[in-house]
Structures are given as structure tokens and as C-alpha cells.
Amino acid sequence: MSSYFITITFINLFTLLMLSICILLNTVINKIQKKDFLITIIVIFTICIMEVLTIIVDASPKKFIWLNILSNYMGFSLTPIVFLCLGNAVFPNRRFRWLFFANLIYMLWLLITQILRTEYSVFFIDSMNKYSRAKCFSVYIIFYILSLIYFFIENIRLSIRFWHTNSIILLINFIFVITGTTIQVIYPNIQVTWLCVVISITIYYIYHDTLYQQLDSQTYLMNQNSFQKWLENQNKPAVLVIAEIDNFSKLKLNYSRKTLDEIIVRISQNFNNHFKKYGRCYRIETEEFCAVIYNTSLNFDELNKNFFINFIKENINSEEMPLITLGYSQISPHEDLNHVLSNADIKKRLFLKERINYLR
To answer: Which end of the chain has fewer surrounding CB within 10 Å, N or C?
Structure first.
């Protein structure tokens, strides 16, 4: 075992340990993603240990054949799962769960082929306890590529959803992982795959931690603190479109907290789906949402009218859904926000007068 491999493995394991502690102590990211990140770390940690074992026991006395088989089996069966787990941590969803099921079938097939001691497997340990690639090594490559494709798709989905928040980092990070993997495939002695994966998962964690500090935990729009930072750093004129939920105080009296939360989330989704193509969306108050749009030449009266009509169509069967009042105002860098909101309130009153016509 070379000093290079020992150093790389130590860096990997120590980094994973420190990252686990950071994730466990984190109070920002949600519990589901915490679990998915930790599962990914446990899988990588296990594979790193198995890699060390394979080097130690390969070509060792015959009594260690079972350990050589076990360590290689764990490595080859768990490796595709890493990118499935990491992809699920990056953007949790259930649409690709069939890949996890397919990987379980692959693991079962690999186990059976090792029990039968056949060469039609991914790897083969001969009677001298020497490892070699078997005739079906391509099966492992196929599952590995499938997991990478899944990982790539999840990166794209997350980048599209949060394209305003430095999402290019996600794609660069994915390229970094692919590059590290490709280098080791071409030059097996340069064992950098897991080092790249460990660095990558650390970057993903930092990205998510930063992202969640910018987001409203209920609606996943940018939060009020993010809006204040935008105001501080604004460097060119923009238009603020303000959407306010009507009679919110009455809603709090008439509906349960759960129902009220569902109403807020549904409205935020409608608002974001309509305005995200024009600019960045924020939740600036409990009952208020805001879109920052730099294209000041747009017809904002028409834009707000179209949103309101679509909102009514989408929620026509929802008896508890309240109406929305919209206004807008241009804002220049360092302009007083209260003055801007006052101008938006004037537009809201005009919108209220016209709104009755949109309901016909």
C-alpha cells in the first residue's frame, strides 16, 4: 500500500467525519436532506474502508479469500448507490426510485455470482486469492453510468429551480466529479475518484447550507433577509411587484394553522410560477410576496392582470383560497423603501377597482 493511497484515504475519512459533525449540528437544512447527506457519507466511508481492505488482503494467504470477496463485493455494490444517494440529497424526489430498486437487483445478482464463484460476474477472486476483473464487469459500468446520469438530472433540476442563486456552481461541481472519475478509469493508479466525490459532497453541503439561509423555510422563496441584502446591494433601477393576501387577519381567525400554511404555500407557488421568468421572487412579509424585475419597460398592469386571472382559474375549486391584490412601483438604488411601498399601495387601490372586471 503506497503512502499516496494512505494519505488520500486519510484525507477522505477525516473530511467525511468532520462533515458528518457539521451536518448533525446544522439547524438550517431540513431533516430529510440531513438524513440523505448522512447516508451518502456513510456509504462513501464504507467504500473507502473496503478499498483499504482489498489492497491489504489481495494476494494474501488463502484463508483471507472470504475477506477479499466481501470487501470487493461491498465496493462494487455500493459505488453506484453513492450518486443515487447524493442526487437524492441534492434534490429529494420519488420519480427515480426505480433506480434504487434496480440497484438492489444488481447487488443481489452480484452476491449470487460470488456465492457460485463464477467468472460471469463483475470481479473474480481466484484460488490464489488474487483479484481480477470478470467477464461481466460491464454490468457494473452500466449501473455506474446510470447513477451518474441520475445525478446529472438532479443537478439540472436544482439549477433550474434556483438559477438565481449561483446554480452554475452545481454544474461545475458535477463536471469536477466526472473529471475525477474519468482520470481514475484511464489511469487506475491515480486514485482520485473518492477524493473528488468527498470534495464534491462538501461543496454541495456548503451550497445547501447557504441556500437555506437565503430561503423562506415555508415557501422556499427568497426570504426577507435576502430582500434586505438585495436592497443594500442594488446597483440599477428595478420594479417591485407586490402581492398581498386579502384579509389575512380574518383568515387567521377562520382557519387552522395547517390550512393557513397550505394557503400560503399554494399562493407562493402560483406567484413564483408566474413571475420567476421575469425576476427573483421573495416573501417579504407573512402575507406579502415581492418580485424584483429589472426590465422596467414591461407592461406591469397587464402582467398583474394575467397573474390574477390565472390565479383564479387555478384555484376556482378551492373555497378557502383568498383573493390577491397586486401593486408595483419602480425603485432606484438606495431609494427609501417606505416611499416605494407607498407608491405600490396606490397601484394596489387602482388594482382593487379594476379587479371586479377580471372576475367576470
So the answer is: C
225 pLDDT exceeds 80? yes
Residue with cell string 438492489: 104
Dump pLDDT digits (tens) for 140-163: 888 888 888 888 888 777 777 665
Own/partner contacts of 49-58, CB < 8 Å, gap of 24 or more, are 49/13, 50/74, 50/75, 50/78, 51/9, 51/75, 51/191, 51/194, 52/1, 52/9, 54/131, 55/1, 55/5, 56/1, 57/129, 58/129, 58/130, 58/131
Q: How distant, in Å, are the alpha carbons of 185, 186, 196, 198 from that of 180?
A: 9, 10, 6, 11
177/323 Cα distance (integer angstroms): 47
Q: Please check the confidence at residue 349 and state whether its pLDDT lies above 70.
A: yes
Is the Cβ–Cβ distance between 219 and 308 less than 8 Å? no
* pTM of the predicted protein model: 0.75
Distance between CA 233 and CA 218 in Å, rounded?
25
Asked if residues 262 and 219 have their Cβ atoms less than 8 Å apart, the reply is no
Is pLDDT at 96 greater than 70 in this prediction?
A: no
pLDDT above 90 (res 357)? no
At 320, list the grid cell: 378557502
Can you list the alpha helix ranges (DSSP code H) found in the chain? 3-25, 31-57, 65-90, 97-115, 137-161, 168-186, 193-214, 224-233, 248-254, 257-275, 300-314, 337-358
How many Cα atoms are found within 13 Å in the side-chain-facing hemisphere of 284? 20
Cβ atoms 330, 296 nearer than 8 A = yes
Percent of the chain with pLDDT over 70: 96
